[in-house]
Amino acid sequence: MVEYDYVKTRREDVQPIKDSQVPLVRFFMRWTTKLNVAVFRASKGRLMNKFIGGYPVCIVTTTGAKSGKTRRIALIHLPHGENKLLVASQGGMNRNPVWYHNIVAHPEVRILVDGTEKTYRARRVSDDEKRDLWPHLVSLYPDFDEYQARTDRNIPVFSCEPVAT
Question: What domains sit in the chain, N to C, each tagged with a CATH number?
Answer without folding.
Answer: 11-162 (2.30.110.10)
